[in-house]
Design goal:
nine-stranded antiparallel sheet; 3 domains; single chain; Uridine Diphospho-n-acetylenolpyruvylglucosamine Reductase, domain 3; 13 helices; Vanillyl-alcohol Oxidase, Chain A, domain 3; alpha+beta; binds flavin-adenine dinucleotide; five-stranded antiparallel sheet
C-alpha cells in the first residue's frame, strides 16, 4: 500500500508534471537553495513559479496532496523559516517573477512577486524617485515590505510596509484576490505583517517618495577608534532630526583577496546612513564624527541609487546567523557594552541602527505591523560556514545581544527575526487578531511564512 508521502508525491507529479522537483530529481537541490547558506533546506518538493497560473496550480496541488506551501523569493530569511518543519512543504520560489514598472504621475511602482530592491531603486531613480528599501540590493521587495522593513529613510518616512498600496495574491483556497483599502481590507491588514502566511504575492503596488538626491555616505576608521566613534555617534543620534537615519558597526573582515584592500583582513568601525535634509544641517550633524579623522569619508549629496551600495552587505549568498534586540536608549553604559562586545572578534558584525522617529509611530489605517517601538536596534551577525557549528554560533550571537538587557524594549523588528527567535514580539499587539485572520483566510494552515503567526 502506498504511504501518505508516496500518494502526495503522485498527486504533485500528476498535477504539476515536470514543474515540480522531488528529492532525487535533478532540479531539487538547486531549487531548495537559499541566500543564507547556513540553513540548508530540504522541503518535500520545490517548484519555481513563472507566473500567476503556476502559483494557483501549486497551491491547489499542494492542498490536494495534503501538503503546505512556503513562498520564497531569495531565501534571505531561510534562518527564520528553518524553525518550521519543511517535510510536508512545497517550497514555491518566486525568484523568476521579476518585473518592475513605475508610474511617475502617481509615484507608484508595480512590482512582481520575486523582484528585488535593486530593481525597484534603479527603475524609480530614472524618474527622480526613491523607494523605502533596505540595505541590500538583493533582498526581495515582498519579503522586506510585508514584514515591516527598515530603510535608511525609516525615521522620517516610517516602516516600508506603510508604503504598500495594494497586493495581488493567490490565497490558500487558490483564488486570486486584490487586497487594498478598497478591496478585501481585512486581508490587506493581515498581509501587512503576516506576509506569505496569508497569500502568495503575484505583485504589489508601492508608493515611492519624490527624492532624487540625499546627503548620504559612510565614515570608516580602524577598530582602535571604536570607543571615540561609538560615543560620538551616540551623541549625534541623541540630537538627530527625524531626517537622519544612521547606523554604527564594528566589522571584522577575513583576509580574502576578493575583498578591497580597505576591508580585507581588517577590523573596522563604520558609521553610515542617510540625512534627507539641507546639506548644511547634515554636515553640522556629522561634524563631531568627521573631527575624529575617518580614514574614509564618502558622505556627500548623492544620487539616491548610491544608497544601496553604502552598507557593504555581502553581494553573494552567505552563511550567516543573526540575533537582534530593540533598545529603549543607547546611554553611556550601552555604548561601552557595544564596544566591548564588538571588538572581541567572535562576531562578523555588531551593529546598532538608529530607529525611532516615525518608524516608532503607528500609522493610522496601517496593517498588522505598522510601527516598531524602540529607539535603537542592536544586531549581531556571525558566520557559520559549516551547519554543524550553527547552534554554537547561535549561542554566540544571542549572548552578544542579551548583554544589552538593561536597555531592552519588548519588541522585535520582524524582518530581522532569524532562526531560534520567537517572532511573536515582532507582531506586537496584533498577534491575536492575526491568528483570527489566519483562521479566516487559511483555516487549514496551507501557507507557511518565515515568521508564522
Ligand atoms: C544581508 C541582509 C541585509 C538585510 N537588510 C535589511 C534592512 O536593511 N532592513 C530590513 O528591514 N531587513 C533587512 N534584512 C532582512 C530581510 O528584509 C528579511 O530577511 C526579508 O524577509 C527577506 O526577504 P526575501 O524575500 O528576500 O527573503 P525570503 O527568505 O525569500 O522570504 C522571506 C519571507 O517573505 C515572504 N515572501 C517572500 N516573497 C514572497 C511572495 N512572493 N509571496 C508571499 N510571501 C513572500 C515569505 O513569508 C517568506 O518566508 C536583511 C537581511 C540580510 C540577509
Amino acid at each position: 500500500m502506498a504511504t501518505d508521502s508516496e500518494r502526495a508525491a503522485r498527486v504533485l507529479r500528476t498535477r504539476l508534471g515536470e514543474r515540480v522537483s522531488l528529492p532525487g530529481d535533478p532540479g531539487y537541490l538547486a531549487g531548495a537553495g537559499a541566500w543564507n547558506l547556513a540553513f540548508p533546506q530540504r522541503p518535500f518538493a520545490v517548484m519555481g513559479a513563472t507566473g500567476e497560473g503556476d502559483i494557483v496550480d501549486a497551491v491547489l496541488a499542494a492542498r490536494d496532496a495534503g501538503l503546505r506551501v512556503a513562498p520564497q523569493s531569495t531565501g534571505h530569511a531561510a534562518g527564520a523559516l528553518a524553525d518550521s518543519d519543511l517535510s510536508d512543504v512545497v517550497m514555491l520560489s518566486l525568484e523568476r517573477m521579476r518585473e518592475v514598472s513605475v508610474d511617475p504621475g502617481t509615484r507608484v511602482a508595480t512590482v512582481a512577486g520575486g523582484s528585488t530592491w535593486g530593481e525597484v531603486v534603479t527603475a524609480a531613480a530614472t524618474h527622480g524617485l526613491a523607494a523605502l528599501h533596505g540595505s541590500a540590493a538583493d533582498v526581495s521587495v515582498v519579503g522586506l515590505a510585508l514584514s515591516g522593513g527598515l530603510s535608511f529613510y525609516a525615521r522620517e518616512s516610517g516602516l516600508t510596509v506603510n508604503s504598500v498600496r495594494s497586493v495581488r495574491v493567490v490565497c490558500a483556497d487558490g483564488e486570486v484576490r486584490t487586497a487594498s483599502d478598497q478591496e478585501n481590507p481585512d486581508l490587506f491588514w493581515a498581509l501587512r505583517g503576516g506576509a506569505g502566511g496569508f497569500g502568495v504575492v503575484v505583485s504589489l503596488e508601492l508608493e515611492l517618495i519624490a527624492v532624487a538626491e540625499v546627503y548620504a555616505g559612510m565614515l570608516l576608521w580602524p577598530v582602535e577608534r571604536a570607543d571615540a566613534v561609538a560615543e560620538a555617534w551616540a551623541a549625534v543620534t541623541g540630537r538627530a532630526p527625524e531626517s537622519a537615519t544612521t547606523s554604527l558597526r564594528i566589522m571584522h573582515f577575513p583576509p580574502i583577496p576578493d575583498l578591497p584592500p580597505f576591508l580585507s583582513g581588517r577590523s573596522l568601525v563604520v558609521v553610515d546612513g542617510v540625512i534627507h535634509d539641507d546639506p548644511r544641517i547634515a554636515e553640522a550633524l556629522i561634524a563631531p564624527l568627521r573631527r575624529l579623522d575617518p580614514e574614509i569619508d564618502t558622505f556627500a549629496l548623492s544620487p539616491v541609487a548610491d544608497v544601496l551600495d553604502m552598507h557593504l552587505d555581502p553581494p553573494e549568498p552567505t552563511p550567516v546567523v543573526t540575533a537582534h534586540r530593540m533598545l529603549r536608549a543607547f546611554p553611556e553604559d550601552a555604548v561601552a557594552r557595544f564596544v566591548r562586545t564588538g571588538v572581541a572578534d567572535s562576531l562578523f558584525i555588531l551593529e546598532v541602527r538608529h530607529v525611532g522617529g516615525r518608524a516608532a509611530r503607528p500609522t493610522p489605517g496601517g496593517g498588522a505591523v505598522s510601527a516598531l517601538s524602540g529607539e535603537y536596534l542592536v544586531l549581531a551577525i556571525a558566520v557559520a560556514p559549516d551547519p554543524t557549528i550553527r547552534s554554537d554560533v547561535e549561542t554566540v550571537v544571542h549572548g552578544a545581544v542579551d548583554g544589552f538587557h538593561p536597555w531592552v524594549e519588548d519588541a522585535l523588528a520582524l524582518t530581522f527575526v532569524d532562526g531560534g527567535a520567537d517572532p511573536a514580539a515582532g507582531f506586537g499587539g496584533s498577534l491575536a487578531a492575526l491568528r483570527e485572520a489566519k483562521r479566516r483566510w487559511d483555516a487549514d494552515g496551507i501557507l507557511l511564512a518565515a515568521h508564522p503567526v
